[in-house]
Amino acid sequence: MGTIRKGANGGFSGKAGSVIGASWKSIDYIRGLSKKSNKPATEEQLIQQARFYTIAKFIMPIAPFVQVGFSQINANTMTPTNAALQANIKTAVVGTYPNFVLDYAKVQISQGSLQPGGTVKAEVATGMLMISWTNKAIAIQNGQLDDLVYILLYHPELDEFLTAPEPPTRGLGTVDIELPEHFLGGKGQLWLFFADRKNKRISRTNYLGELDLV
């Protein structure tokens, strides 16, 4: 049963006959009930489903990252997670059906106009991931010393992610992250992006490459 909000002229939530009422970001909308189909999926549909699954299984576990990284992209029409899925399915999913894979160099966990950290470097030694970035040219970078640095390390073989316990700030210029023992001996994919304290200005994603985790 649907529930009318704000009187007879307001929106409603729930099911009423063949329609469903709902609200997203204070916008009331109505959609029809989905119809079940007995038709088998076409090859084109199967290909699209496989492409979507390939990127979705990567994006969904890192939802807190893309909630920040895509917070300013089409914010009035879609969620940050959906924006991230849409952006990545077009460029980061490669290969041929059914063997789709991710091109890690093209994965985006953020989009925006804030300048990233200039010369960004990363290396691994004795179980420590060490990352550095430029914090001198703030005026050129159009950033602030208290911008947060969001770091994401992915271990494909384990299908696990790692980040700093707390996002460091741009002004620090460097951060060391201790790697868990079970990460060692494998290879990791590394990305980072910058965001101001209010998450209103976001940088594009920096891909730092594949690292030997030693």
UniProtKB/TrEMBL annotation:
Protein name per its UniProtKB record: Uncharacterized protein
Entry-linked Pfam families: DUF6266
Superkingdom of origin: Bacteria
Species for this entry: Sphingobacterium detergens
Upper taxonomic lineage: Bacteria, Pseudomonadati, Bacteroidota, Sphingobacteriia, Sphingobacteriales
